[in-house]
Amino acid sequence: MKHLLVVMAVFAFVCCGSASAKEGSDAVSGASGAGESAKQTASSFEPVKTDKRILIAFFSQGSNTKRIAEELESLLGADIERIVEKKNRKGFFGFLSAGADATMGRIGKIETPSRDPSAYDIVIVCTPVWAGKVTPAVRAYLTPMRERLPEVACVVVAGVSAPQGVVKSMEGIAGKAALGYAGFVEEDFSTKNRARYDEKILEFLKLFR
Hints:
The protein is an alpha/beta fold. It has helices at 2-21, 36-44, 64-76, 91-103, 136-145, 164-174, 194-205, and strands at 54-58, 79-82, 122-130, 133-134, 151-157, 181-184. It is built from seven helices and six strands; from the N terminus they run H-H-E-H-E-H-E-E-H-E-H-E-H. Strands 1, 2, 3, 4, 5 and 6 form a six-stranded mixed β-sheet that branches.
């Protein structure tokens, strides 16, 4: 009975937290429902001229976080590293494990990164939010990189929640304060909210000018 109550509690927490963990469908499985606004942004802004060497490290199971990472890659002339988690998060049980692992602060298993962050001036780490927490894959990326990280900036993509708590957790894992951050929610990806999405991108780009 005790174990059943624990399972039910975790299930309720994950389901109730799915709005803040959702990021379209990116937070749990499948492709997200991002609108056309994000697709068009890179071609509508002038690239940032900077002498900083920038690496973008991102985890994305759907398309929202991936889209932002690729926008920033284009606008900043950055290198990009996709964080690939080895655990299958698809389907109902994948959804449950995603929320449970994030809630418990577990470190996931990822494929070995191909780029050394110490070769860069700034690393931008992009993550969706699962159950209000940092994803296990991003924990797995940041934890062993702690001693090799230069300056760090964060991009956080949630369902509806504010990003500050997740950014603070990322700072704790990285062992340093972030240069700055951008926080996106699901509504930012709809076509009708393109102006708000663009404003957040432009504000974030100011960190690198």
